[in-house]
Amino acid sequence: MRLSAGAGRRLALDVPIEPLILGSETYTVDPSQVTVELDVSRMTGMGYALRLRFAATLEGPCMRCLQPAAPTIEVEAWEVDRPGGGEELSSPYVREEVLDLAAWTRDAFALAVPVKVLCREDCVGLCPICAADLNVAGPEHRHERAPDPRWAKLGELKLE
Ligand SMILES: [Zn+2]
Ligand SMILES: [Zn+2]
After folding, report:
1. Which ligand ends up closest to the CA of 129?
2. What residues pair up with 68 in beta bridges, in sequence order?
């Protein structure tokens, strides 16, 4: 994409996003072609400041209870590219005034995805003993503990 010179410009562009693999699960992105808002401003002197904004929904299993999860991820990212400005002012997505918007969109989305994808923030997950969904089973779900043999011995002593 050619960046035109001049003051600020706002562009709306459609960019495809591929599914993400998190853990061993595949999470699809809805929409798979997301409309991003790109602000391009020419900095004083040479170079560009870029801002990328979009929102997309990640769809896949909840990492706690395995039920479907579909959190909406809001993304906002910035890049600065200034020729001769050194490493910090050189965007990896800009080459010869051409912006690799697909790569930037994909990376910015991957960075914005939470460490744990959950069906809801307070998902309580599965019972560690029987794998029942505790969101459904409720807080009263519990198992009888096997009696500790040491306490059993103590009980015998008391009985004598
Ligand atoms: Zn869940
Ligand atoms: Zn259980």
Report:
1. 2
2. 61
The DSSP result for 67-91, as a single string, is SEE--EEEEEEEEEE-TTS-GGG--
Among the bound ligands, name the one nearest to the CA of residue 136. 1
Q: In the structure encoding, which two tokens stand for residue 111, read together?
A: 């960075």
Ligand with an atom nearest the CA of residue 125: 1
Does the CA dihedral 109-113-119-121 come out positive or negative?
negative
- CA 123 to centroid of ligand 2, rounded, Å: 16
Overall pTM > 0.85: no
Rounded CA separation 64/49 (Å): 40
Tell me the pLDDT of the chain (160 aa) as tens digits: 455 555 688 999 999 999 999 989 999 999 999 999 999 988 777 788 999 999 999 999 999 999 999 999 999 999 999 877 777 788 999 888 789 999 999 999 999 999 999 999 999 999 999 999 999 999 899 888 766 666 556 555 555 5
- Distance (Å) from CA 27 to ligand 1 centroid: 15
Place of tokens 């709306």: 12
